[in-house]
Write a structure and sequence with these properties.
about 300 residues, alpha/beta, Aminopeptidase, six-stranded mixed β-sheet, 6 helices, globular, disordered C terminus
Length: about 300
């Protein structure tokens, strides 16, 4: 009996000793699993905890990319309806010239596989806003922006000079497009692309032997467009102002522009989407809910 009692006491004593030593053993196992840090001279250094990385920061979503439809072109034949534009001669008004050029361009572009969105395809287009009458300049910009086009061309005509005049916006370039671009300066993010588009069209027109003038101008609604945008102003072919109505001349201009856009479609790039929205200006006539350019 004494021997049995001594064995039980010995077992209990051993168990108590193991329990007291367990924390040190776990600590040693944890350190062994991490392994000692090694200094440059080969000596082991004490392990230090590494900063944790927030899962939310790793999984934070980037701003959505900006959509571009590379095979879509917007044509905006300026004026129309009660707005005749410039009186170029006794028989020629600007609204008729811009619409005729738009039809020729549409035919050329469609034949090359483009989808063409025209802000008007008749003398006057009704505004989508009830009671607003004819299509406004802001309506035209809205049509263009919804198309997410590779190029937006605002077609004008002038009796001054000869050939074609190309203009891009006077706005300074912005580093990217905010989530809700300010309506009156939405084009700023697209200025670099508009400049490249201008170069592409200028080269094509020059190769076709068409006199060319380039510059910058604030022509509404160009500054509200979220696409590579230019004003294409048709001037007479020669000293006769009515020569701008000649079919062969307009065909020559349309062919050069359509060829340039075919090349441009593979080059156009959307600007960066900024992660935070810039303060937006109200869309004229859109009410308090229309803060900026609508998608």
């Amino acid at each position: 009996m004494n021997a049995l009692r001594n064995s039980i006491l010995a077992a209990l004593l051993t168990a108590c000793l193991l329990t007291l030593a367990a924390p040190d053993a776990h600590a040693q196992m944890g350190a062994a699993s991490r392994g000692p840090a090694t200094q440059a001279n080969g000596a082991s250094a004490a392990w230090t905890p590494q900063p944790s990385v927030s899962i939310s920061s790793v999984n934070a979503s980037a701003p959505a990319p900006i959509l571009i439809n590379r095979r879509v072109v917007v044509l905006d034949p300026a004026h129309g309806g009660s707005d005749s534009g410039a009186q170029i001669s006794d028989t020629t008004v600007e609204k008729d010239v811009t619409l005729a050029l738009a039809f020729r361009l549409r035919a050329m572009l469609t034949a090359r596989g483009f989808t063409v969105v025209m802000t008007r395809d008749s003398d006057a287009m009704a505004s989508p806003t009830p009671g607003a009458g004819e299509l406004t300049l802001d309506d035209r910009a809205g049509v263009a922006n919804h198309a997410h086009a590779a190029a937006c061309l605002l077609l004008h005509a002038s009796g001054s000079g000869v050939g074609v005049h190309l203009y891009r916006s006077e706005l300074d370039a912005a580093p990217g497009e905010s989530a809700v671009p300010p309506w009156l300066t939405a084009q700023a993010a697209w200025i670099p692309q508009s400049s490249l588009l201008e170069g592409e069209l200028a080269n094509a027109l020059t190769r076709s032997g068409i006199p060319l003038v380039t510059g910058r101008a604030s022509v509404r609604p160009m500054d509200s467009l979220t696409c590579p945008a230019l004003v294409v102003e048709l001037a007479p072919a020669d000293e006769d102002v009515d020569s701008m109505n000649r079919t062969d001349y307009q065909q020559q201009v349309a062919r050069a522009i359509a060829g340039a856009l075919l090349v441009w479609a593979d080059q156009v790039q959307a600007p960066l989407r900024l992660s935070s929205a810039a303060p937006a200006m109200n869309h004229p006539g859109a009410g308090s809910s229309g803060a900026g350019v609508q998608p």
